[in-house]
C-alpha cells in the first residue's frame, strides 16, 4: 500500500511540474501592426480597477514585432484587460474582458483614416 501512495505522489509531482513548464493557460503573443512603436503594455484581471506593472519594462515593442506575454503563475481568472501606450505621444488603447484562456494571439492595428485602434483575438 505504501508503494502505491508513493508512486501516486511521484506521478502527481511530475504532472504538476510538466504543467508549470508548459506555462500558464493565459499566456499569449502580442503582435504590433499599428505603424507605431509601443512603449508600455499592461495586462490586469478585469475585476480589478488598477493596472499591473508595465510588462515591457525598459523594452519597447516596435511596429511589426511581437512579444510573448507569460504569466508566472497559473491564475484562476481567464478574463483580462489589455492596455498599450504608444511611444510617440503617450496615447493609449484599451481592451476589456479578453478571455486569455481561449486566446493565443492578440494582433493590434491602427487605422489612420478613422483614427482607431483595433485588435483581433486568435
Structural description of this entry:
There is one protein chain. This protein has 122 residues and is α+β, with helices and mostly antiparallel strands. The protein contains one helix and seven strands. The protein has a four-stranded mixed beta sheet, with no helix packed on it. Strands 2-4-5 form a three-stranded antiparallel beta sheet, with no helix packed on it. A hairpin with a 5-residue loop joins strand 4 and strand 5. It starts with a helix and ends with a strand.
Sequence-ordered SSE layout with sheet pairings:
Layout: H1 2-22, E1 28-33, E2 38-45, E3 66-69, E4 79-86, E5 92-99, E6 105-111, E7 116-121
Parallel strand pairs: 1-6
Antiparallel strand pairs: 1-3, 2-4, 4-5, 6-7
Descriptive keywords:
alpha+beta, disordered N terminus
Short characterization:
By secondary structure, the chain is of the alpha+beta class.
Largest β sheet strand count, sense and barrel closure: 4 strands, mixed
Task: Catalogue the unreliable spans.
Answer: 1-22
Structural class: alpha+beta
Strand segment count: 7
Give the mean pLDDT: 83
Percent in strands:
35-45%
| Helical proportion, percent range | 10-25%
Radius of gyration: 18 Å
Strand order within the widest sheet? 3-1-6-7
Number of helices: 1
Instruction: Give the N-to-C terminal Cα separation.
Output: 48 Å
What shape does the CA trace take? globular
SSE topology string: HEEEEEEE
- Oligomer state equals single chain
